[in-house]
Design goal:
17% of the residues lie in helices and 23% in strands. It contains 2 helices and 10 strands.
Length: 236
């Protein structure tokens, strides 16, 4: 029996559109971040309402409305990545194997450090990540630290999940994402200066927030903030 490739092509379409969206965001977010943010909202709402690969159940799509806090420029940061110490040889790290090559493989010196670990997951699957360092975020109420992860496996990608005091009331109980580069949700940064853009106005719910049929990696305890982050996508 022939396999219908329709679902795979639709998923490729979704990922292509998201990649184009974040390319647009990076192109003008430095000078006009609120305009970039509104464009991000508009495109995502359209996709959630109309795309076959929307995480929103099909019966809910016609009436779906995205909800967000107003844009807050005080919650956009260019954070310096403080690298994780390199793991010793034999401990499951990359010592001796080196860093990430341009094609996504492992190259020469300058490894990603840290050990592979499985983050909490809303489903049965286990996904492996590597903590590559920490980001000091100077929130208006005081500095907090978040770990930045690299998704293991083919292609990889930066991953920054977090939980905060809005979870379970205004946002999904298990947290939100700011960066998931494996799915093109990447706000940019400067590799020469070792920085990453962390703009909480672009924080969004994982797919499992809309439908439990999706399985999503979740924020580990070290990325649970003790403050509310009233920015980005909300549920209530």
């Amino acid at each position: 029996m022939a396999v219908d490739p329709g679902a795979e092509l639709q998923l490729a379409s979704w990922r292509r559109t998201i990649a184009e969206l974040y390319a647009d965001v990076r192109a003008f977010a430095d000078e006009r971040p609120e305009v970039a943010w509104q464009h991000w909202i508009d495109v995502r709402e359209r996709l959630y309402k109309t795309h076959p690969q929307s995480p929103v159940p099909a019966t809910d799509r016609p009436t779906f409305r995205a909800r967000h806090w107003p844009y807050d420029p005080a919650l956009r940061f260019e954070a310096i990545l403080e690298p994780e110490p390199a793991a010793p040889v034999g401990a499951g790290g990359l010592a001796g194997a080196g860093g990430l090559g341009a094609a996504g493989g492992l190259g020469a010196a300058g490894g990603l450090g840290g050990l592979s670990m499985a983050l909490p997951n809303s489903g049965a699957d286990t996904l492996s990540f590597r903590r590559i360092g920490s980001l000091a975020i100077p929130f208006p109420v005081g500095e907090r630290r978040l770990s930045l992860f690299w998704m293991e496996g083919y292609a990889g990608g930066l991953f920054l999940p977090f939980r905060d005091a809005t979870n379970g009331a205004e946002t999904y109980g298990a947290g939100r994402y700011v960066i998931d580069a494996a799915k093109s949700a990447d706000l940019g940064g400067d590799p020469d200066r070792g920085t990453v853009i962390v703009d909480f106005n672009f924080a969004y719910q994982p797919s499992c927030a809309f439908d439990p049929r999706w399985a999503c990696p979740l924020a580990p305890p070290e990325n649970r903030l003790d403050i509310p982050v009233a920015a980005g996508e909300r549920i209530a």
